[in-house]
Design goal:
The structure holds two protein chains of two kinds. By secondary structure, chain A is an all-alpha fold. Chain A has a two-stranded antiparallel sheet with strand order 1-2. Chain A has helices spanning 5-20, 27-53, 60-77, 82-104, 110-129, 132-135, 150-174, 176-186, 188-193, 198-224, 229-232, 235-248, 254-270, 279-293, 298-310; strands at 141-142, 226-227. The two termini of chain A are 13 Å apart. Chain B has a domain at 17-210. In chain B, 73% of the residues lie in helices and 3% in strands. Chain B is built from eleven helices and two strands; from the N terminus they run H-H-H-H-E-E-H-H-H-H-H-H-H. In chain B, a hairpin with a 2-residue loop joins strand 1 and strand 2 (129-132). In chain B, helix 1 runs parallel beside helix 5 (133-155). The chains are: A mainly alpha, B mainly alpha. The interface between A and B is large, with 43 and 43 residues.
Chain lengths: 323, 282
């Protein structure tokens, strides 16, 4: 495990900082922060699967959508209490994770990415056609029961969820299992060569990722109170998730969170100048340039500067992956 | 009968759309997720030149192809080459690029969709099915381009060099073919093809900033199912996909249009990852 008290202290400081934020900022900023929290959850979920094992998923909204739709349908159409609906949604998403996992047994790389993209588009079209009385068809659903009222409560809910997920993922990645997952991403054959079952490891990664995605998706729909297929199974949404994880720094825990906050605030910052979808032009260009300049993400850039200010002669720093 | 005619026409269009994507995938071995953006660019360039400035349509079409070609060349030089064949990085950066280009179009032309006047106006009736000359023209153009491409790849020196690079990069380099040049050429060609297809596609449906997604999915389906490096495969599968869509619309429900295409991608990828006509690859 090799836990160190400095890490725990940093986590504690981070939690305190995040919890203290509502005292200082306006309601509007809080709403932005809530969105950033959810985006961070999705990005972490993407990263557990794609950042670690190298199986790039272009269909993450597929998993998130299963979580969100299951919970929304259960509470709205069948009057299931939220306490039961969310676990059920998470279970459903994990089943979805297994479905996505099946092609990964045979194919990898670009082909796998394409299958997941196809899954997302398939889901998008099916949701509109099959049982529109349940899913609300093209228009989606509104008036889904919400968990919280007001920006402050919403913020506390989303930030606690994000921190809980981030912390448990961090712990998980520090175990041997986490190391093995990253090893799958580096060289699957040699992992198999060392006598580990890559199938089991991959299954584990898919299930964990689906678990987080389902949890995030379900809470997200109960925060928003509405759901629409076009907003969910959308390339722009997928793009935001992937870019958040990559810009922040893939296969770290702090990276996707950093990326999510960076992107959300960039988007908010651009809003006064460009109100509509044009924002994505600047936003995407910045993302593209950052990605081309440093594929390891912001975390690597920060780390580099940190090293430089500390002086290269100083004792060896904790690498960026430590958090 | 109507289904057959509509299926043939739609499939011709799809074959044209998928061709450029297949080329890149075969020769450069990368998935260009910004491929749909060529169609977007082609459609909007044609719209600006022919519909706004009233330049003759053929010139508009040619200019659209030229712009598409330039975009393809730039993309290769600025994006793909610096990433040095890292497939995942290329896919992700082209995906980002596609979103950027879409936003650029929104920025310039606004969010709402535009109607592109038919390239060739008029309607005819074939065996009880009404067929617009426009789609007919697209199909003929598509067949002409496909045959031309087939001959080009088979008969000319450059075409054979493309085949060589698609089979084995290093082997081609040893035989005196510069893979970099061939790649650059292919990217340009693919861009031109994509932009041309975009004009026809836009006149078939309509111009909108998000019009690049559907053709991308179709191209992906065609390439995946057809397999790498097979022009004939592309043609055949474009017809499978086209007919499946027309049948789904006519027999089951219009909403299910794309569902079978997705299912086809998933099933083929899982059962036969090298595609129906492709070489053993994975």
């Amino acid at each position: 495990m090799n836990l160190r008290w400095t890490h725990l202290a940093m986590w504690l400081a981070f939690v305190c900082l995040m919890m203290a934020i509502p005292e200082f900022v306006s309601k509007g900023t809080l709403r932005t922060l809530i969105f950033a929290n959810f985006l961070a959850i999705f990005a972490i979920s993407w990263d557990v699967l794609s950042g670690r094992t190298g199986y790039i998923s272009f269909g993450h909204p597929f998993l998130i959508g299963i979580g969100a739709y299951t919970s929304a349908i259960l509470t709205k159409r069948f009057d299931v209490p939220i306490e039961y609906a969310i676990p059920a949604a998470v279970l459903m998403t994990m089943v979805g994770g297994i479905i996505v996992f099946l092609p990964a047994l045979r194919i990898k790389g670009s082909y796998f990415a394409l299958v997941t993209l196809a899954f997302m588009e398939l889901m998008y079209q099916l949701v509109q056609v099959i049982r529109p009385d349940l899913t609300g068809g093209t228009r989606g659903m509104s008036g889904v029961q919400t968990l919280t009222r007001g920006a402050v409560n919403g913020y506390y809910m989303s930030v606690s969820l994000m921190l809980a997920i981030a912390f448990s993922m961090w712990l998980l990645m520090r175990t041997q299992l986490g190391t093995a997952l990253s090893a799958v991403g580096m060289n699957e054959e040699s992992v198999r060569g060392s006598g580990l079952s890559t199938t089991k490891l991959k299954l584990f990664a898919f299930l964990t990722s689906a678990f987080v995605a389902g949890l995030g998706g379900a809470f997200y729909v109960h925060y928003l109170g509405s759901i629409a297929p076009r907003a969910l199974f959308d390339i722009n949404f997928l793009f935001t998730i992937i870019v958040a994880a990559l810009i922040g720094g893939a296969s770290t825990i702090i990276g996707p969170m950093l990326g999510a906050f960076f992107l959300t605030f960039l988007l908010e910052f651009l809003r006064p100048y460009l109100p509509g979808a044009e924002r994505y032009f600047i936003y995407g260009t910045i993302a593209l340039l950052l990605y081309m300049y440093e594929p390891k993400g912001l975390i690597a850039i920060i780390d580099k500067y940190w090293q430089r200010t500390r002086g290269t002669f100083a004792r060896k720093q904790e690498p960026g992956e430590s958090l | 009968m109507q289904i057959i005619i509509q299926g043939l026409l739609l499939s011709g269009l799809y074959a044209l759309i998928a061709m450029g994507f297949t080329l890149i995938f075969s020769v450069g071995r990368v998935l260009n997720l910004a491929y749909g953006a060529y169609l977007l660019i082609g459609g909007y360039v044609y719209f600006t030149i022919s519909q706004t400035f009233g330049v003759p349509k053929l010139i508009g079409l040619l200019l659209a192809a030229v712009v598409g070609c330039l975009v393809g060349l730039l993309k290769y030089r600025l994006l793909v080459k610096p990433l040095k064949g890292d497939h995942v990085a290329v896919e992700i950066s082209t995906l980002i690029l596609a979103v950027v280009l879409q936003a650029g179009v929104v920025f310039l032309y606004g969010d709402s969709s535009k109607i592109l006047l038919p390239i060739v106006p008029g309607v005819t009736h074939v065996a009880g099915a009404s067929v617009t000359y426009n789609l007919l023209a697209a199909t003929f153009a598509s067949w002409a381009i496909l045959i031309g491409l087939y001959l080009f790849v088979r008969k000319t020196h450059v075409g054979r060099a493309m085949q060589a690079v698609s089979m084995d990069n290093r082997g081609a380099a040893i035989s005196g073919v510069d893979p970099d040049k061939i790649n650059l050429f292919t990217w340009g060609l693919s861009g031109a093809l994509g932009a041309t297809a975009g004009v026809f596609f836009a006149s078939y449906t309509q111009l909108s900033p998000s019009m690049w997604v559907a053709p991308l999915i179709i191209s992906v389906a065609v390439v995946i199912v057809g397999g790498i490096g097979s022009i004939i495969g592309t043609l055949v599968v474009a017809h499978i996909v086209g007919f499946m869509e027309v049948l789904a619309v006519a027999v089951i429900a219009p909403e299910l249009r794309g569902v079978f295409t997705m299912l086809l991608i998933i099933v083929v990828l899982v059962i036969r990852p090298q595609g129906l006509f492709g070489r053993e690859e994975l």
